[in-house]
Amino acid sequence: MADSHAWGDPFEALGDPNRREILRLLSNGDKPVQEIAAAMPISRPAVSRHLRLLKDAGMVAEQAEGTRRIYHLQEQGLHAVQAYLEGIWGDAAARFRMLAENTDKTARR
Q1: Average pLDDT of the chain, as a whole number
Q2: Which of 4, 14, 15, 108 shows the greatest Cβ crowding within 10 Å of its Cβ?
Q3: Domain of 78, in residue numbers
Q4: Gap between the Cα atoms of 32 and 108, Å rounded
């Protein structure tokens, strides 16, 4: 990916089920770390480590509100994953569509 030197690897960040669950939780809206940790089966320090990795990958960002840290989804990491998948599967989907449109219907029976 083009910005791999500037950001952590979003695919590596997605490789852990706890980090995927954190992203799912944040897809419902911004949340403080305490609320994220309360919804997880792991310790709060572990949640903080996962959030740091997600932040390094450009997938989440934090905003300070007093002594609380509020996390939200960040577009850079998500766009990097989307662009990669579209680059790989976009061409394959176009070829499949062309094949399907040009296949003789009688040959499919």
Answers
A1: 86
A2: 14
A3: 10-108
A4: 54
